[in-house]
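User: I'll paste a sequence; please echo it back and then give the predicted structure.

Assistant: Echoing your sequence first, then the prediction.
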Amino acid sequence: MARTMTEPEKNGGDIVYGDGGAIRSPLRMAWRKLKRHKLAMVGMWVLIFLHLFAIFAGFFAPYSELTTDRRRTNHSPTKVHFISPEGKLTRPFIYGHTRTDTLRNIYEEDTSQVYPIRFFVRGDKYKILWFETDLRLFGVDSPAKIYLLGADRYGRDIFSRLAYGGRRSLFIGIIGLVVSMSIGLVYGGISGYFGGWVDNLMMRVAEVIISIPSFYLLLALSAVLPPSLGSTERFIMITFILAFIGWAGLARVIRGMVLSIRQQDFVTAAEAVGCSQPRVIIRHILPNTMSYIIVNATLSIPGFILSEAGLSLIGVGIQHPDASWGNMLSEALNLTSLTRYPWLLVPGFVIFITVLSYSFFGDGIRDAFDPRAQT
């Protein structure tokens, strides 16, 4: 016997009615559409991998970001072998290297020296979250060194510095976004809700901020930072400079959305039952802008990453010897070095892949939260 229509029952994240029909929640519907966007899913998994690689850099990297070896200046990428000299499949290993040309830094394998790649080895100590350890994923016995992506002019492992540099280059975008979004949400929400002279005054201030040439402001503010400032302090300062530039545009968009939302019946009802103005803004109006905020976040982070990379590339961002993808790429500014040591361009490819992944993921998020898109 068929069930008759009853009160809605909750089943997981869906609302199931007595006749078996279901109405999916907006987040579940968005996730369903996002999974259909193949490029967005590829971008999402690439970003997850890159962020985990940066967070657990000490584990994945065979050396610390400051480990140097002047005897291996601009060392070429190390070849990993799986076939023994006898032609048999064996555990991965590398050969030792000798520098045959000191002027041009040319290295050749010495097949008489064999070093197996060992996993879960002990190395330099590092902190992972709140714990200190010296366990690393892989490494080789001394005096050999393994450079999966080559070394720079100081003999520092590019693979290891990519991992450590990702902590600054990737998370400067997330931290900057959180700061700018918090300011933009509150500022735009207040401006749109109160309107009138408050709105006019606040929007004029935002327009002044928008009119400032962002890159030149970054150059000017970064250049006045004292040379003695450490990389951590410089990182924080650059993050807040980027956030200071980025909040005004978001505030204007939020202001326009709030002007429309405040006329809705649920806002009028909240005001009628005595909700305070801050509560109306925070609990009833701003949550209705979340779909736009999520889309804006995924599309804005690449801008922060590129800004930091540009500043570090020209020497006013994160300073050596601390690594960021931008100051690592500065090693490739010399044409002679670039033609002889093309592996110095690896940080540029990582930046390109990161920005492209964010673009793919942002497009997928935008389509997923678009109510006009087909489900």
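The two ends are 31 Å apart (CA to CA). The chain has two domains: 77-146, 160-368.
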